[in-house]
Amino acid sequence: MDVRYSELANTIVKNIKDGIYPVGSRLPSEVDFARQFDVSRTTIRSALRVVEELGLISRKRRAGTVVEAAKPASQYSKSLHSIEDLVNYASKTIRNVLDISEIICDDALATTLECKAGKRWLRVQILRTELTDRDHPICWTDAYMDPDDGRAILDLIKDGSGLLCHFIEQRTGRTVIDLKQQVGATQVPAAVAHLLQVEADSVGLEITRHYLDQAKKVFLITVNIYPKDKFKFTFWIHRDKH
């Protein structure tokens, strides 16, 4: 049931965002939804619970299920500033798409992505450059997404600014609820080094991000490599007053 209810939640979220269920309107009853999607009412309840947690609907006895908002009021909590920094960074750089291909994960890549070997991904290889000067590279990105999600946004994956996760949200109804970020040192591979204009095997910074949707499922992973002088990660740590 897990896969089915998460798919239904994504569909309902997308329909709300697209205005099929406008703000202020009532959603179909659980019985009608169950008939429409040929699933049990338990599955429908699970899907609606996910949508309710996003703040898009309210559910009250006798009043039914009412659409309260077209977009989640707040997708992130305590890590808001870091994620806003990520969005600002994406809006101020240019995404240069160099390759799009479907791949099968081998053992080494599975370890990096924390998934099972043999899993299929749509991989998008990107070189990010400065907004005003495409001759100055900032970052190399290997982005891995579910092939179905990838095919849904193929016409949007082109040179420009912005984040891939936003395109997926727009087309599939998936909403980024959690973002896991791992930061560590790496050696810049020779195949990437010349694009980043650094020496092969020189020291760089690797940031791997796992994007999780409202069903807590990973739907996008990005592995980003920065030359050592192109990125600085700053954060504050405060003593708990309690």
Automatic annotation (TrEMBL):
<dbReference type="GO" id="GO:0045892">
    <property type="term" value="P:negative regulation of DNA-templated transcription"/>
</dbReference>
<protein>
    <submittedName>
        <fullName>GntR family transcriptional regulator</fullName>
    </submittedName>
</protein>
<keyword id="KW-0805">Transcription regulation</keyword>
<dbReference type="InterPro" id="IPR000524">
    <property type="entry name" value="Tscrpt_reg_HTH_GntR"/>
</dbReference>
<dbReference type="Pfam" id="PF07702">
    <property type="entry name" value="UTRA"/>
</dbReference>
<dbReference type="InterPro" id="IPR028978">
    <property type="entry name" value="Chorismate_lyase_/UTRA_dom_sf"/>
</dbReference>
<dbReference type="GO" id="GO:0003700">
    <property type="term" value="F:DNA-binding transcription factor activity"/>
</dbReference>
<keyword id="KW-0238">DNA-binding</keyword>
<dbReference type="InterPro" id="IPR036388">
    <property type="entry name" value="WH-like_DNA-bd_sf"/>
</dbReference>
<dbReference type="Pfam" id="PF00392">
    <property type="entry name" value="GntR"/>
</dbReference>
<dbReference type="InterPro" id="IPR036390">
    <property type="entry name" value="WH_DNA-bd_sf"/>
</dbReference>
<dbReference type="InterPro" id="IPR050679">
    <property type="entry name" value="Bact_HTH_transcr_reg"/>
</dbReference>
<feature type="domain" description="HTH gntR-type">
    <location>
        <begin position="2"/>
        <end position="70"/>
    </location>
</feature>
<keyword id="KW-0804">Transcription</keyword>
<dbReference type="InterPro" id="IPR011663">
    <property type="entry name" value="UTRA"/>
</dbReference>
<dbReference type="GO" id="GO:0003677">
    <property type="term" value="F:DNA binding"/>
</dbReference>
